[in-house]
Amino acid sequence: MAEMLKLGLVLMLVALAAAVALGLVNSRTAPIIAEQKEMEKQNAMRMVAGSLSPGDSLAFDSLAVRGLPNPYASADNVLEVVKVYSPPDTSRVGYLFIAYGKGYSSTIQTMVAVDTSGEVSGSTILYQQETPGLGANVEDPSKLIHSFSGMEARGILLSKDGGGIDAMTGCTITSRAVTNSVREGLEAMEEAGLFHRGPDVPASDVDTTTEVEEQHPCDSEEGSVDAGTPDVTEGGAE
Amino acid sequence: MSLVRDLTNGIYRENPVFKLALGMCPFLAVTTSVENAIGMGAAATFVLICSNFLVSLFRNLIPSKVRIPCYIVIIATFVTLVDMVMNAYLPDLHRSLGIFIPLIVVNCIILGRAEGFANRHPVLNSLADAVGMGVGFTLAMIILASFRELLGNGTWLNINVLGPSYQNQPLLIAILAPGAFILLGFILGFFNILEKRRGGGGQ
Questions:
Q1: Model pLDDT for residues A132-177, shown as the tens digit of each residue
Q2: With an 8 Å Cβ cutoff, are B84 and A238 in contact?
Q3: Strands laid side by side in the A78-85 sheet
Q4: Which of B31, B56, B131, B195 has its Cβ near the most Cβ atoms within 10 Å?
């Protein structure tokens, strides 16, 4: 009995010391981590939006478009879209949105900048946990995402699916996930009537839904594991 | 003295990967690039040093009946600390190492050294052992990662070595899991030949 108490006490002390140490470090690092996440997102927004209107200082406004899955939002099927404009002038120069695509081993988040006519001007990968050396190469700005620039929704499809985008060699699943999620995002925005084709359309259009979204999907950090087949199928020629 | 011996022990004579075959899970998983190998090695070495130090320091205080749970708590604490600190101050490295950091908890090198060395050796020797084992683990990972990154991606430490013509058609299998096993087999074979030669020469 006495021995059992002693053993329990020793274990408790060890665990207590561990808990205190963890609590201290966590209180130190948690705000830095949160700040870093936010900054990363802000940087990505500025970088991608810069392709819309280089040189201008830009401002952002949130709006929500229905009809697209966002695995991280609590509300169902809302695509978060950010309106971009250069401050003195409130007419929009374009939009930003985050596309979520389920890749080989993670849900890949792609931030896309698109102009008012529906043409992609730039994109960057915000989050991915794909196979290092293979799928993880989607982060390379000169590879897959580079070929989205200047394309409209209907062109953004892998060439082996009948579109004009070449998949990265050895990672068709990753390439397809990113490509399809970007296209679906653009299609949802088009359906919501955010794009206009004519060159001389004034900024008088009214959004279907212009509620300001508070939640940022980037805050949740979770890669779901996809039990799919290995993405080693040979991709298109590069 | 024996301190030097303890230090060099892990680097070659009892290399945790090539000789003791410990820690295979992270070893095979993160060696897709040299950068990952170095990061994982550094994190594992840090945890190993801290856990060996504490285990050795308290080796007479911790009753042997509850030693394993105590070691696990100690190791898990340091792993979580590494995870949080890395996430805050080295976000890029944290992104690429991802899920492998929590896996250090079950890295049997660390529990193995706590149980097999630190709990019956003085603090200084345990520290020397931890450094040696950590360096040995890191070097082993760098060796395998060099082959895999070079063959599978045409680069070494993100520096383009083999040129774009190779990168368009690289030996993809080297970077995938089967390639890790195959290359590990070759490396182990090489070390065994070396050992035999050496043994034959001495006799």
A1: 667 888 888 888 888 898 888 888 999 888 888 888 877 889 999 9
A2: no
A3: A59-66, A78-85, A92-102, A107-115, A120-127
A4: B31
Tell me which residues of chain A have a C-beta less than 8 Å from any C-beta of chain B.
6-7, 10-11, 14-15, 18, 21-22, 25-26, 28-30, 32-33, 36, 40, 129, 131-134, 136, 169-170, 223, 230, 232, 238
Nearest residue on chain B to A238, alpha-carbon basis: B168
Has residue A7 been placed in a domain? no
In terms of residue numbers, what domain contains A98? 49-219
Among A151, A147, A15, which Cα is nearest to B77's?
A15
Query: Quick check: is A21 in a domain?
Result: no
Q: Residues B40, B30: contact at Cβ < 8 Å?
A: yes
Residue A208 lies inside a defined structural domain of this protein? yes
- With respect to residue A3, please indicate whether it lies within any of the assigned structural domains: no
User: Are B159 and B46 within 8 A, CB to CB?
Assistant: no
ipTM score assigned to the predicted complex? 0.73
pTM: 0.70
Residue where the block lists tokens 């995870």? B83
Structural domain total, chain A:
1
- State the nearest Cα–Cα gap between B135 and chain A, in angstroms: 23
